[in-house]
Write a structure and sequence with these properties.
The chain has helices at 11-22, 36-46, 62-72, 86-96, 107-119, 127-135, 142-148, 152-162, 167-174, 178-192, 197-212; strands at 2-7, 27-33, 50-53, 77-82, 101-103. It is an alpha/beta fold. It has two domains: 2-135, Rossmann fold (3-Layer(aba) Sandwich), CATH 3.40.50.2300; 142-212, Orthogonal Bundle (Arc Repressor Mutant, subunit A), CATH 1.10.10.10. α8 (152-162) packs across α10 (178-192) and α8 (152-162) crosses α11. The termini are far apart.
């Protein structure tokens, strides 16, 4: 029996995945977690073979969790299931240590095939993303190319700015100092060619709205 941990901050999503997994006689859900701290406790408690991880988590991002699990070298396979733009995040999660990326909009019909592909030792991505990686294509959208230049941490800060978080709130959520947050903001403005904090906020809000559309 293959043990699977579901890490997502939405209970309905966890329930939906658990039902789909429960229909497979060779798979079982060994635990569920809604945030990073709980996920780490569940990993120690049930030692899953595979973890399904959302990128947006309380107490740390899914990328942070992937890197933390990878650093433990526990042999746990990881599959990301997220609403975020695959073209922006897929390469990041693979580099961090995950073995696949599936958009939640496609998860109802593809989560089990994705799980089985990752368990077989292969990488799971959409056909579009696979073709993009193989061909070495760059996104034709200039804004996407700019944002793709941000580091993982800068991207986290950029998203939080778009969600309306203050520097102190970001510092608390990411366990960083306010000065470090301000440094990240300065780097983001430089990379995106923005001249003021107002322009940064407007750009971040627009991006977050586009991501959620």
């Amino acid at each position: 029996m293959t043990k699977i941990l579901i890490v997502d901050d939405h209970p309905l999503v966890r329930t939906g995945f658990a039902q789909l997994i429960g229909d497979c006689p060779d798979l079982e859900v060994c635990g569920e977690a809604g945030d990073m701290a709980d996920a780490l406790k569940q990993i120690d408690a049930c030692v899953p073979d595979l973890a399904i991880i959302d990128l947006s988590l309380a107490g740390g991002s899914g990328l942070d969790l992937i890197q933390h699990i990878k650093s433990r070298d526990r042999g746990i396979l990881m599959l990301v299931a997220s609403m975020h733009d695959e073209t922006l995040y897929a390469e990041r999660v693979l580099a961090a240590g995950a073995r696949g990326y599936i958009n939640k909009q496609e998860a109802q019909e593809n989560i089990i095939p994705a799980i089985r592909q990752v368990l077989s030792g292969k990488v799971f991505l959409s056909q579009h993303m696979t073709d993009r990686l193989l061909s070495g294509m760059v996104d034709a959208n200039g804004e996407k190319r700019d944002i793709d230049s941000l580091s993982n941490r800068e991207l986290q800060v950029f998203e939080l700015i778009g969600q309306g978080a203050t520097a102190s709130q970001m510092a608390e959520q990411l366990n960083l100092s306010v000065k470090t947050i301000e440094t990240h903001q300065a780097h983001i403005k430089r990379k995106l060619g923005l001249g003021s904090a107002h322009e940064l906020i407007q750009r971040a809000i627009r991006w977050v709205m586009d991501e959620g559309s």
